[in-house]
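Our preliminary data section would be incomplete without showing what the modeling component actually yields. Below, a chain of 112 amino acids is followed by its predicted structure, encoded as tokens that our downstream tools consume directly.
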Amino acid sequence: MKVRKTLYGLKQTPQHWYEKAKRTLLSIGITQCPNAPCIFVGTIIPDQPPIYLSLYVDDFIYFSESPAVTDLFETRFSAKINVTFEERIGYFLGINHRIIEHNDGNIQIYLN
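Predicted structure:
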């Protein structure tokens, strides 16, 4: 028998997800860092700040200075892959992220 798509829990599943996510990122104009294969960057809206993305197996984290860029990224990525996006990062790679935004524009980030 031949499996037509990767099933959750198989040994090859993380690699298949990574390859699918990578192909999707490249197709929407986000390029892979040559020295760090899990880091991606791209300018998807001309004259807007780039988006930065870190992909590790089946989790990723991304940010941009422009909310329009992150919104467009989410729209384009979710049009190709069925994913859900969380508003705030909680845990990523076993690290708890706590972000505090102050009224004066300063941001504090705590990792533990």
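Helices lie at 13-27, 67-80. The chain has a mean pLDDT of 82. Preliminary results of this kind motivate Aim 1 of the renewal.
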